[in-house]
């Protein structure tokens, strides 16, 4: 009888522990409002334009358990047809933003583009809460697509891989999520240097994988 009681208690404890673990894994998603995509398009900087990039953010966030929020990719785009230029900083909402581990990385747009933000290899993580490889890791995927300057605006003359529809010639600014490396601004999270092309192989060769930042409005 005692063995039966102990066995039942063990089963109950196991179920409770498993439930608590499951909840702890899912809990961060309720407040999730910032992440680096766990995967890119697989086609270099061809993200399907801003709309395609936004949809990718939305899909990944939903899969991670975050619902009821509108997600936007942190990307700038050049004027096209009747469409004016788009600045990444103007499309991501007001903040604050927190990662999958409930760390607030910035309180508002100005804070995000200042030295006071909390963006780093430890805090700039995926929607799943995973760390993104940085300089010194194999493979190094610290180049994050932004097409922006350090203030989150479209750089003068930038075409950003035909506004995120090209996997061939062209270039786009990338940031270093781990805040280290080479380039004009090696510690910049959003404008470290330009890519050496728009294809997947070009991005990989310079330390990227076609990943980008997503923010909830």
What does it look like?
A hairpin with a 5-residue loop joins strand 3 and strand 4. It is globular, with a radius of gyration of 20 Å. The chain contains 5 helices and 8 strands. The protein is an alpha+beta fold. It has helices at residues 2-26, 49-63, 109-112, 160-164, 200-205; strands at 34-36, 71-73, 97-98, 104-106, 143-145, 173-176, 193-194, 208-216. Strands 1, 2, 5, 6, 7 and 8 form a 6-stranded mixed sheet that branches. Strands 3-4 form a two-stranded antiparallel ribbon. Residues 2-28 have low confidence and may be disordered. The relative contact order is 0.21. The termini are far apart. The protein has a single domain (31-216), classed as Mannose-Binding Protein A, subunit A (Mannose-Binding Protein A, Chain A, Roll).
Distance between the termini: 58 Å
Structural class: alpha+beta
Total of domains: 1
Percent of residues in helical segments?
Answer: 25-40%
CATH class: Alpha Beta
Shape: globular
Order of helices and strands: HEHEEEHEHEEHE
Parts with pLDDT < 50 across at least 5 consecutive residues: 2-28
| Mean of pLDDT | 89
Biggest β-sheet strands, sense, barrel: 6 strands, mixed
Approximately how much beta-strand content do the residues carry?
5-15%
Number of strands: 8
| Corresponding CATH architecture | Roll
Radius of gyration: 20 Å
Question: Number of helical segments?
Answer: 5
- CATH homologous superfamily annotation: Mannose-Binding Protein A, subunit A
Query: What fold name stands as the CATH topology?
Result: Mannose-Binding Protein A, Chain A
């Amino acid at each position: 009888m005692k063995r039966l009681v102990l066995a039942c208690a063990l089963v109950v404890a196991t179920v409770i522990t498993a439930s608590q673990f499951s909840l702890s894994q899912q809990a961060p998603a309720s407040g999730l409002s910032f992440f680096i995509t766990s995967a890119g398009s697989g086609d270099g900087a061809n993200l399907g334009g801003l709309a395609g990039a936004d949809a990718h953010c939305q899909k990944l966030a939903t899969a991670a358990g975050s619902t009821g929020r509108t997600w936007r990719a942190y990307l700038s785009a050049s004027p096209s047809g009747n469409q004016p230029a788009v600045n990444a900083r103007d499309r991501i909402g007001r903040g604050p933003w927190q990662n999958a581990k409930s760390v607030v990385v910035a309180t508002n747009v100005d804070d995000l583009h200042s030295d006071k933000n909390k963006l780093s290899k430890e805090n700039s993580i995926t929607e799943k809460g995973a760390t993104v490889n940085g300089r010194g890791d194999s493979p190094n995927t610290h180049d994050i697509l932004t097409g922006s300057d350090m203030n989150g605006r479209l750089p003068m003359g930038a075409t950003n891989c035909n506004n995120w529809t090209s996997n061939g010639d062209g270039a786009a600014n990338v940031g270093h999520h781990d805040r280290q490396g080479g380039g004009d601004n090696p510690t910049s999270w959003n404008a470290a240097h330009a890519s050496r092309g728009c294809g997947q192989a070009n991005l990989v060769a310079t330390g990227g994988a076609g990943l980008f930042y997503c923010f909830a409005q």
